[in-house]
Amino acid sequence: MPYVQYIKDNAEMLGTYSPFYGAPFPLNLFNFDPSMEYGKQAATIIHPFINFLTAPLTYLSSHSIGNMLYLLLQSGINALTTTIVYFMLRRSGSDISVSLLFSAFFGVSSYSIFTSLIPDSYSYAQFVIVLSAAYLQKCRAEQSFSIIPNASFTLINLGITSTNVVTFAGALFFSLFDLRSKKTTFRRFMTIMISALLMIIGFTALQYVLFSGKTWLSNVFGGLSNGALGYVTPFSFAHHAKAFYMLVVSPVLTPDVALIDPGIVAFATDLSKPYPFYVHIVGIGLFLLAVLGFIKGIKTRETWAIATYILFAFVLHIVVGFGLTTFQYDLYLYAGHYLFAFFILAAGFISSIRNVTVKRVMLGVIALFLLTTLANNIVKQNATLDIIQSSYTDVITQQDK
């Protein structure tokens, strides 16, 4: 609430420095873009059908409680996403203690906090990703992959963020895969994808009718150049050595933030400051547990279906280099759509431990990780607001001179 109130009280002043096309929420934090306020014109190759969501929400926001609507809505969505993670863990065989600890750990992560705050697409995209993963888990358990529901999830994943269709398609393929019947697997997969394509064509036509002839195809090449390919650069260890922290650790434990570009008042990770020792321990600890969980279940479809989200993020951001051209802004690197997969894989490893004493010790460690993350994020969230307020004051003072 303090963030939203600060933006509301200083909207006119802050809007002067905002790079976000006059959106009522101009806070440029981790380069989150308040795309939910762009109304019916929001459709692009990056977010093909997002205007089906932004159009009504922009109207409701402007005719009700303003940005507080997004704070309440997205906090609820992130809480629901956390609850789905809990039920996924329970369905996968984790006991109540493991499921509660890891879902709460995920719920207090930095990414969950900040995506509740800013009217961006991230909360909605993450919710659909996790819901899709939960549905595929149900399909695997029942050995039934209905065409229309899976095609619908393909459509929705594409509609909110286009790259998410890749992870859902990958998770679906691994969920379907059966060495004993490869032809059946491929046939079912292609049937779902073709059905999804027909749905995409239908929604594109509906988009054309509802939004005055504008669709996500209207400026495909411009969108690819400005909103996708323009952010790609090869990975360089010398320049991007902290990419691991920006992709994996900072979305869990809020980093120190600084004003890195007064021209657009951009706040991002202060890369000049070293990470505290406990950040290394918790971040690397969670990562290693997830790796062990992947190794433990490497022969199962469930593990590969969940790991798809992490593997794609690695390929997209490190191999392809998407987002690395604006490394210092955290652009797309802090956007942890794949974050839930680390918690599920790590929880899977803890659940696989048979020695009662060892398991209790590990649960104690996770509880300590959870409390450390919670304390860090509460402190750093308040510190971030202080930095934002003081930085805007400094920018205005310099402008006045």
Q: Can you walk me through this structure?
A:
With 401 residues, the chain is mostly helical. The protein is 66% helix and 3% strand. The chain contains 17 helices and 3 strands. The protein has helices spanning 2-9, 11-15, 51-62, 68-91, 96-107, 110-117, 122-142, 147-160, 164-176, 182-210, 220-227, 237-240, 243-249, 277-296, 301-319, 339-352, 356-400, and strands at 28-29, 257-261, 266-269. Strands 1-3-2 form a 3-stranded mixed beta sheet, covered by helices on one side. Strand 2 and strand 3 form a beta hairpin. Helix 4 packs parallel to helix 7 and helix 7 runs antiparallel to helix 8 (147-160). The model has no long low-confidence stretch (mean pLDDT 91).
Write the layout of secondary structure elements.
Blueprint: H1 2-9, H2 11-15, E1 28-29, H3 51-62, H4 68-91, H5 96-107, H6 110-117, H7 122-142, H8 147-160, H9 164-176, H10 182-210, H11 220-227, H12 237-240, H13 243-249, E2 257-261, E3 266-269, H14 277-296, H15 301-319, H16 339-352, H17 356-400
Parallel strand pairs: 1-3
Antiparallel strand pairs: 2-3
Helix pairs in contact: 4-5, 4-6, 4-7, 5-16, 5-17, 7-8, 7-9, 8-9, 8-10, 9-10, 9-15, 14-16, 15-16
